From TrEMBL:
InterPro entries: Bifunc_inhib/LTP/seed_store (IPR016140), DIR1-like (IPR039265). Coiled coil: none annotated. This is Bifunctional inhibitor/plant lipid transfer protein/seed storage helical domain. The keyword Transferase does not apply. The keyword Methyltransferase does not apply. GO terms for molecular function: fatty acid binding. One of its GO terms (biological process) is systemic acquired resistance. Pfam families: LTP_2. Keywords: Signal. Residues 27-109 form the Bifunctional inhibitor/plant lipid transfer protein/seed storage helical domain. Residues 1-19 form the signal peptide.
Length: 115
């Protein structure tokens, strides 16, 4: 009887632990849509390669690269970015256009390579 009680308690503990774990995606615990929304000041720069990149955009991109560089790639390739008309080939160059030194240069982002 004690053995069955122990197994039941252990099983309940395991189920509670599994239920409390949140799946982390490319952007960690931040939903990708929230990460994309934080980069909204960059929208004009992702559509026109010759367009000026706003300082607020550079600050947001720099912060995201420091905290989670894979998230930036995930945002650029997301369905939300596609709906917003973002050109990934142009968007991939925003960190360079911002003169961000610690950008993941040479890393792949889908079929693109970070300049």
């Amino acid at each position: 009887m004690k053995c069955c009680m122990f197994v039941a308690v252990a099983l309940m503990s395991l189920l509670i632990t599994l239920a409390s774990i949140e799946a982390a995606g490319e952007c960690g615990r931040m939903p990708i849509n929230q990460a994309a929304a934080s980069l909204s000041p960059c929208l004009p720069a992702t559509k026109n390669q010759r367009g000026k990149v706003q300082p607020v955009c550079c600050a947001k991109v720099g912060a995201l690269i420091r905290t989670n560089p894979r998230c930036l790639c995930a945002v650029m390739l997301s369905p939300l970015a596609k709906k917003a008309g973002i050109n990934p080939g142009i968007a991939i160059g925003v960190p360079k256009r911002c003169n961000i030194r610690n950008r993941p240069a040479g890393k792949r982002c889908g079929r693109y390579i970070v300049p």
